[in-house]
Amino acid sequence: MTKKICLSVICICLATFAFTQTKARLSLFYSPYHSEVIVKDGLLSDSGHTGKNGNLFELRYSHPVNAYLSLETGIQYSANKIETEYFPDGITHYMESEIKLISVPVYANFTFLKYFYVEAGPTLDFEVQHKQGAPVQNQDGVGLAAGVGGKYTFKRITVFVNPFLQSHLLVSFTNDKIYERLWQSGLKFGVGYSF
Predict the structure, then answer these.
(1) Does the pLDDT value for residue 87 go beyond 70?
(2) Residue 131: CB partners within 8 Å, gap ≥ 6?
(3) Greatest CA separation found in the chain?
(4) Residues 186/30, Cβ–Cβ less than 8 Å
(5) Helix, strand or coil for residue 11?
(6) Buried-exposed string 61-91: b where 16+ CB fall within 10 A, e elsewhere
(7) How far is the C-alpha of 14 from the C-alpha of 65, rounded, in Å?
(8) What is the C-alpha R_g of the chain?
């Protein structure tokens, strides 16, 4: 697990050095959001999951390709609270758990009408300290994120508001069959500095 995280950080640093030019931007984002666990259709189980709130923190590097398109990467940490209800003895029991993820997103960001943008791209997701026998399947794998947002730039400072949707475990890093997938949706708030 630690090796995967170190490798991801090294890749981000190399990408940052490869894209060194003017007008690059470094941004910080935060989002309180809602998470949900989507269970594959047809899966029979004596339990169910209810997503609760979560918190997301993201550091992002943006490199402009032209006036409208930029490529972005970074590192993201999210903590997702999940409530699992199960009834092995005919009585409903509840258990709360937390899924903590470190993700490396790679976005294509397209600006239109000067103040608005759309972004989408894959994410490499690594679950932090997944326990054997956890109520939700390990979310290590490749996901997908998309969003639309607004931004305003004053000199070198840019502020962002970004509704987003993110799905994890579209492709698993292990050979396990995928039967539970974490979804996140919410509103990111961010501030960036261009250099």
Answers:
(1) no
(2) none
(3) 64
(4) no
(5) helix
(6) bbbbeeeeebbbbbbbebebebebebeeeee
(7) 17
(8) 18
